Amino acid sequence: MNWIEIFGHIGALLSSLTFVPQVIRAWKTKRVGDLSLNMMVIVFVSTIIWLIYGFALQLWPVILANIIISLLSVTLIYFKLTFTR
């Protein structure tokens, strides 16, 4: 693995972690009123598009980051739909 690939994996890891604090906070507080459902759906759709791109070019940092981000996005969407009621 060369230094470019290492940077790619580090960037993918950091990008993947961006939603973790929000998921944890939403889970603990059961409050999601300030979260935008539209934004979360856009993020989810964009990760699916990035996944298609990553698989087509076999770019593992892109694939791994977007799998994690899509799972976290789906979790937030679920929380938004469940905790709002």
Automatic annotation (TrEMBL):
Record-annotated membrane-spanning stretches: 36-53, 59-79
Record's keyword terms, sorted: Membrane, Transmembrane, Transmembrane helix
Topology with respect to the bilayer: Multi-pass membrane protein
Location, primary (coarse class): membrane
Gene3D superfamilies in the record: 1.20.1280.290
Compartmental location: Membrane
Protein name: SemiSWEET family transporter
Organism field: Agaribacillus aureus
